[in-house]
Amino acid sequence: MREYEVVCSYANPDIHPEISSPGYLHIHTIACDQLVADENQLYSECASEEVLTSPTLICSQWGTMGQLYRSERSAVVGHQTVKTAGDIAIGSAAKGSQITGDFEGGGEAIMVNGQSFRIARGRTVAHQEGVVHRMDNDDRYWTVQVADFSNVQAAADLNGIHFLSREHLLHILKIAGKIPAGSAFIATFRARFEDLWVRSNGGYKSDDIDIPTLALFRGDRANGGHVVGDSQEVGDMKSLHDSGLDPALAKLKGEFISPLRIRPIHISVCNHEIANA
Description:
The protein is mainly beta. Helix content is 13%, strand content 38%. The chain contains five helices and 17 strands. The chain has helices at 50-53, 65-69, 79-85, 166-176, 234-242, and strands at residues 3-10, 26-31, 57-62, 77-78, 88-95, 104-112, 115-123, 129-134, 140-147, 156-157, 162-163, 184-195, 197-199, 216-218, 224-228, 253-256, 259-270. It has a 17-stranded mixed beta sheet that branches. The longest helix is centred in the middle third of the chain and has 11 residues, at 166-176. It is globular. 47% of the residues are buried. The model has no long low-confidence stretch (mean pLDDT 88).
């Protein structure tokens, strides 16, 4: 089975209504074979209690879901700025603005240990679903959440632990990370998936995408993207319905194959780019 890097975030909607999709375990993933060789040393550390005593991380967020619902999305922050805020992130790439009518969504974004990618619609020549593009400093996002995990050690070694649904995964993360009740968190780990449904609704015209209508990816064919399944989230349900699938059949099952790095976060919503980025 293919191995994936996973970044996920969660917030209580009563406490953090400003976060993207509050009350929903937001998961992005990328296949490990898409990462640059020898750059990723995330999981060499032993499990540690450090995560329990360190201060809460700041999770910087640009863009909000309200912009999506109001058709007001625009490319609000550059990748160079995002990199100054941390090394773990999930978001959506973009160009232009819906206000001026030249908006283009570039796909689902993920940053793991400073390696940044966007995953677009379509299929590669190797018949893998979701076309991976390495992000550079000129790329931009319409929404992104980023935190600095450079000094965060593993909270628990979950290697071999199975999760049977999105809700089960959320429960494991909260318990293993000893997340205080009501706290938002961001987490990263490596996993294999027994059942995986992933989507990307974006892709630039300049990408020259093969089968540009292919937006939902299944199983080990998927290079990564936004994980759907076991969810009532509007975008997830629409992705499944648009592909002619019964959402009740889209499950999220898998196995941890690494220690877990997880931290409570304080969410800081940014209205501008960091100065001197």
